[in-house]
Amino acid sequence: AVGSDGIRMTMESALTARDRVGVQDFVLLENYQSEAAFIENLRKRFKENLIYTYIGSVLVSVNPYKELEIYSKQHMERYRGVNFYEVSPHIYAIADNSYRAMRTERKDQCILISGESGAGKTEATKKILQYYAVTCPASDKVQTVKDRLLQSNPVLEAFGNAKTLRNDNSSRFGKYMDVQFDFKGAPIGGHILSYLLEKSRVVHQNHGERNFHIFYQLLEGGESDLLRRLGLEKNAQQYQYLIKGQCAKVSSINDKNEWKTVKKALSVINFSESDVEELLSIVASVLHLGNIQFVVNDQGDSQLTSENQIRYLATLLRVEGASLREALTHKAIIAKGEELKTPLNLEQAAYARDALAKAVYGRTFSWLVNKINESLAYKESLGLGKRTDSVLGLLDIYGFEVFQHNSFEQFCINYCNEKLQQLFIELTLKSEQEEYEAEGIAWESVQYFNNKIICDLVEEKFKGIISILDEECLRPGDATDLTFLEKLEESIKNHPHFLTHKLADQKTRKTFGREDFRLLHYAGDVNYTVMGKIKSVNFLCVNFLVATLLPKPPSPTRCHPLPQGAAAQPHTLPSSTAGCSRPTLHIAKAGPPSPTRCLPPSKAGPPSPTRDFLYFQNVDWGGGMAESQDVSYGFSKTRRYKLFSIRYKSLCPDTWPNWNGRLADGVATLVRYLGYKPEEYKLGRTKIFIRFPKTLFATEDALELRKQSIATKLQAVWRGFHQKQKFQTMKRSATQIQAWWRGELGRRKAAKRKQAAETIRRFIKGFIYRHAPRCPENEYFLDYVRYSFLMNLKRNLPKNILDKSWPIPPPALTEASEQLRQLCLQNMVWSYCRKISPEWKQQLEQKAVASEVFKDKKDNYPQSVPKLFAATRLETDELNSKVIQALGNEKVKYAVPVTKYDRKGYKARARQLLLTDNSAFIVEEGKVKQRIDYSSLKGISVSSLSDGLFVLHVPCEGSKQKGDVVLQSDHVIETLTKVAMSAERVHNININQGSIKFTVGQGKEGTIDFTSGSELVIAKAKNGHLSVVAPRLNSR
Question: Using one digit for the tens of pLDDT, what is the confidence trace for 263-276?
């Protein structure tokens, strides 16, 4: 076991670290009775975006009016399976705590989400459903249920939510959703109940508010073909029911995108195309109803003016046009058992039209909820006698409302909240105090307001407001709103929570009108007007209207049909307000709820410098102060001795594994061992009461550690036994495998030895008969020798053409080896030739010509071999532009600077030798000095020494060709090779030793004498010859 001091220190440090701003549980407030401290704590946390705070097990949520980064999957995993107070307050903690309680205790649970408009109730419900969708076990079937549960929200919001002054997406109906879970904890189905739909919004909206979202979404996002079939236009300003609030367009709402979301959601929750078409037809019929206008005829009765609207209505509602027209302008009266139809005046007809619109929309909403329930229903449980699933309920209902003019619907809403508050008092505050008294625990009592007296004022039979209004609606004669008020003043004038203008004192009368009455609710005083209440609950003419729909096939408007026949009992207030008390029944069945109090920071959205918090009023109305005081005075957790002992007995050696004495003594021994301080707990007659949550969770932490210790010991014993059994099995198996494997190895080794001996024997016999013709005795040896040669040849093939190595073949393969050698050489030559580029090929051809002409003949040839011949020695930009122009179309293939020696005097002159396709040109700067056609070139003479002199022999033809040309080039081998190849005079190059004769002019010759010396000297000798002394570079 772990010492309690260490656990308590760990728990305290964790709590201190989490309380960065204020405290996260109002139970931990030092001044828990101060309303100012209560509100200040909320304000501090809200400013730091800490919107959640506990009051014991109650969660207080303040709407931040912005997206916070606290709803990711990582946050969900953080709260999954964690004790309630181990992490900071969050809606996920409430969701997980209820889920785990349902799983461990096998009891249905309920989460109650309450608060006024704009407090964030709808978003809180969404977050809880998203948490279950992510954290609960999943399969393909379960995933379908999760998707339908999540996608039911956009559909219900479209048909049941609207923009109000406080909230752009305010729920205008109450919702109780049952989520069914199987024994694995996976969601398998659900069921939704709706309460108190604000049907009056269909026909009237206050300034700055809108009708239900679906109307605007249909007009803004509906396809043109769909709107044409429904007879609608995209402009919301064309419909009277959509412009009462004068804000059909809202910048913060994207109706087009929301329409796409709704259509996708309808398909996910299994709505067929015909279902959607019929549903939208009813929605369109409501818009057409609003555009119906009446005028007064000559008899003073109402008469329709909108025949086009009647035609669309008859088509959409599938009724006869004449019947609908009559129903809108007449009412049915029963006199002496006969049904009489009397015309309606203008006011009555307008009311009948609006009443029909509300009735049609209300029935459509009920049909929609039933259709969603069909898709969420757990089919496999139908017909089973025993229930095997668990249910977790979510109640989302708008809270206490007070407006400037409070109608019959606000009366119903506030009555429902009174019932919820009464239930909360009975299930929490009152029941806890009674439990403490029954257990003999002394504590300081909390004074709280018991609102049962207000509930009785509204619902008591024969005396309550509902009964009086019911009686006034059904009595013979002309009942009016004022007669109803008089009846109230007469019947309940002495009730302390009821007040009218007539019953009030002079000062109080100034605060409300003569047609109002005031109820003193638990949350505050509210004035209700009686004007229109008789109309609001009297549906006689509406019965006649809806009766026209009955003969036709079922549709959304007939999901709850009226009784057949004219004598059917009309609807009055009891049937209209039957849903007011239904939420309390569901919560009572599910046991004590997990409450979440949602608060708006101000009346009109987020707080600002000019709009401070209104927490005081909200907290007081929600009963938050009473809850905080009750939990602080009392105890946060109670457990019966038996349950406490069974759960925690492993923490104490004296109580583990069993305690044989009285349970109370065992529990006392256990808490003493855990180190509970006297102020932290009390022992009752049958239960232990733990005051502080941190004490309980310190115990839970110790239990988790102890569980690990016990589990480790059990695992060790089991693993030891399991491993021993496994080892023995493995040992037997290993022995059998080893015996078989040893035999297999021995057999393989014997076979291998036998094969080796046979191979050696065949090899030796083959070697002996190696020179004999092929026979069975030597065929193995000969094949082996051939194979060895070929494999050796494969590893030692020549690497290139110059590599002449080749393995020595055996005598039998001499001929084959030679053929293979020739093939290999050809292949290498072919491969080498394929890789030669055109430029390199030209270079090789020139080198080959140079070798053929000058090898072993010209002294400086060896020095030219390693040097590549240049494509040209002068680039085009180095030639004079006039020369290029003079050449015309002749393209210069090679250009080299040369020295020309005059035929007379042998004076050296710098020139350029240009070679083209057809001629050779000798150029001086910008002037072509001489052109030598290749066809006229007779030959070329050069010495065998290392000098660069050569003579181009040309015929003497007048002034153009006066004689041979004597030139000198620093690249004589390269130059002569290119001249010879261009002029095709390779075989006309003469390499002379001693002297060269050349033609100076017509009939005249010159001589060039060549001698060896130490350095190159070219000069005119005394005998008139050109003397060339050249050093010898190579000895021959």
Answer: 999 998 888 888 89
For residue 937, the tally of other CB atoms under 10 A from its CB is 22
Tokens of 114: 């309450």
* Sheet with 516-521: strands ordered across: 498-500, 516-521, 524-529
Instruction: For domain 408-551, give its CATH number from 3.90.280.10, 1.20.58.530, 3.20.20.150, 3.30.420.380.
Output: 1.20.58.530
Helix (H) or strand (E) holding 949: strand 949-953
Global pTM reads: 0.59
Tell the CATH topology of 641-751.
Alpha-Beta Plaits (3.30.70)
Q: In this structure, what DSSP letter does residue 380 have?
A: G
- Given a contact cutoff of 8 angstroms between Cβ atoms, the answer to whether 352 and 542 are in contact is yes
Residues belonging to the binding site are 115-122
- What is the average pLDDT across 468-494? 78
Residues 6+ apart with CB under 8 A from 622: 114, 115, 399, 523, 597, 599
Query: Which of 920, 999, 922, 985 is closest to 954 using CA atoms?
Result: 999
Three-state secondary structure call for residue 478 = coil
849-991 CATH fold: PH-domain like (2.30.29)
Q: Where are the alpha helices (DSSP H) in 181-333?
A: 213-221, 224-230, 255-268, 273-290, 307-317, 321-329
d(CA 769, CA 50): 103
Altogether, the residues listed in the chain come to a count of: 1036
Residues of each annotated binding site for ATP: 115-122
Alpha carbon distance 719, 710 (integer Å): 14
CATH homologous superfamily of 25-132+596-605+616-634: Kinesin motor domain (3.40.850.10)
* CA pair distance 555, 733, nearest whole angstrom: 74
Token pair for 68: 């916070």
Q: Which two tokens stand for residue 603?
A: 């009346």
pLDDT number for residue 477: 62
Task: Please check whether residue 810 is in contact with residue 793, taking contact to mean a CB–CB distance below 8 angstroms.
Answer: no
Q: Which H, E and C letters describe 313-380, residue by residue?
A: HHHHHCCCHHHHHHHHHEEEEEECCEEEEEECCHHHHHHHHHHHHHHHHHHHHHHHHHHHHHHHCCHH
